[in-house]
Amino acid sequence: MAPRRSRDADKQTKSDPQIAPEPTARTAGAPLADDEADVDLLEEEGVGTIAVETDKDGERLDAALARLLPDLSRSRLKALIKDGDVTLDGAAVTDPSRKTRVGERVTVLLPPPVDADPEPEAIPLTILYEDEHLIVIDKPAGLVVHPAAGNWTGTLVNALLHHCADSLSGIGGVRRPGIVHRLDKETSGVMVVAKTDVAHQGLAAQFADHGRTGDLERAYLALVWGAPEPFRGTIDAPLGRSNSDRTKMAVTKSGKEAITHYEVTERFPEGSGREAVASLVECRLETGRTHQIRVHMAEIGHPLIGDPVYGRGFRTKANRLPPDLGEAVRAFPRQALHAFLIAFAHPVNGEILRFESPLPQDMRELISNFHSC
């Protein structure tokens, strides 16, 4: 099958994704590299500064920056503007309502936090397993993994510091203690965190290997538009930063190798007599690139439902659905992606541990709505 091309950026350097049928599902998993548009995905001009270019006329400056820099809240951006920490084409501006013009270069100075060390916070955790060396949690959508610009508090790290006290591994640094892999803020599912340095080293080695030679296994469930063909296959398409939008990733010839194995597990409506409106897809990663599943599925023409970055036009698609279903899709607040499985060798005793997380309620309800279409 000739894969459908994304309308995303980098057309002049894009590499067509190679999609090959797979006779059997792979069991190798891989870490999903920081599946969030963190500040390190933006164009940085120096320590604590971010530069972007406006792309609309007549938009409020604070609103434009909130759209272009999704990791920073609009309230924080408004405060930065009022404090004189934002410049337009080199000139300071202090009015958040100032209207933008296409092509203006906006530079945001991010003052260092008063206290860079995260504080323990009593945030509830769903714990699937815990021993003296590691802890496995079921992360809800909406929870940021570690402190970063725009999210210095209320993160998983803050919750872990409260739960584990001083027992977290320090290898990840003060803002990422014990963190060996990450999930996007709006991606739900199972994660493992190291509590000791020996566990951190052992787990990090397994994630670095991506399960190619070891026991690491990670799998995700994604609700996507349409139904990929073939129903089981491999997407082999290198990923790098988008040339036109530095907050996004894109398929590009100059990118890093990225391989996703997928299998359609359910289509809506069921049966072969009607065109699929959506489908539930299991994805396993042979590499761990930023936004890999989201970009790869969008690249073959089946973006994740609810994805605000790579699912362009999904609200238009929702308008074509039956009223109740369309309303449910438009109201879905995030990309429909859930890390449902993780398996690994215990870094100390070698025991193979396997944990599964059921689909969260929001995805179950959305699937139920699709069953009715």
TrEMBL record:
<feature type="compositionally biased region" description="Basic and acidic residues">
    <location>
        <begin position="1"/>
        <end position="14"/>
    </location>
</feature>
<feature type="region of interest" description="Disordered">
    <location>
        <begin position="1"/>
        <end position="32"/>
    </location>
</feature>
<dbReference type="InterPro" id="IPR020103">
    <property type="entry name" value="PsdUridine_synth_cat_dom_sf"/>
</dbReference>
<feature type="domain" description="RNA-binding S4">
    <location>
        <begin position="59"/>
        <end position="124"/>
    </location>
</feature>
<comment type="function">
    <text>Responsible for synthesis of pseudouridine from uracil at positions 1911, 1915 and 1917 in 23S ribosomal RNA.</text>
</comment>
<feature type="active site">
    <location>
        <position position="184"/>
    </location>
</feature>
<dbReference type="InterPro" id="IPR050188">
    <property type="entry name" value="RluA_PseudoU_synthase"/>
</dbReference>
<dbReference type="InterPro" id="IPR002942">
    <property type="entry name" value="S4_RNA-bd"/>
</dbReference>
<dbReference type="InterPro" id="IPR036986">
    <property type="entry name" value="S4_RNA-bd_sf"/>
</dbReference>
<dbReference type="GO" id="GO:0003723">
    <property type="term" value="F:RNA binding"/>
</dbReference>
<keyword id="KW-0694">RNA-binding</keyword>
<keyword id="KW-0413">Isomerase</keyword>
<protein>
    <recommendedName>
        <fullName>Pseudouridine synthase</fullName>
        <ecNumber>5.4.99.-</ecNumber>
    </recommendedName>
</protein>
<dbReference type="GO" id="GO:0000455">
    <property type="term" value="P:enzyme-directed rRNA pseudouridine synthesis"/>
</dbReference>
<dbReference type="Pfam" id="PF01479">
    <property type="entry name" value="S4"/>
</dbReference>
<dbReference type="Pfam" id="PF00849">
    <property type="entry name" value="PseudoU_synth_2"/>
</dbReference>
<dbReference type="InterPro" id="IPR006225">
    <property type="entry name" value="PsdUridine_synth_RluC/D"/>
</dbReference>
<dbReference type="InterPro" id="IPR006145">
    <property type="entry name" value="PsdUridine_synth_RsuA/RluA"/>
</dbReference>
<dbReference type="GO" id="GO:0160140">
    <property type="term" value="F:23S rRNA pseudouridine(1911/1915/1917) synthase activity"/>
</dbReference>
<dbReference type="InterPro" id="IPR006224">
    <property type="entry name" value="PsdUridine_synth_RluA-like_CS"/>
</dbReference>
<comment type="similarity">
    <text>Belongs to the pseudouridine synthase RluA family.</text>
</comment>
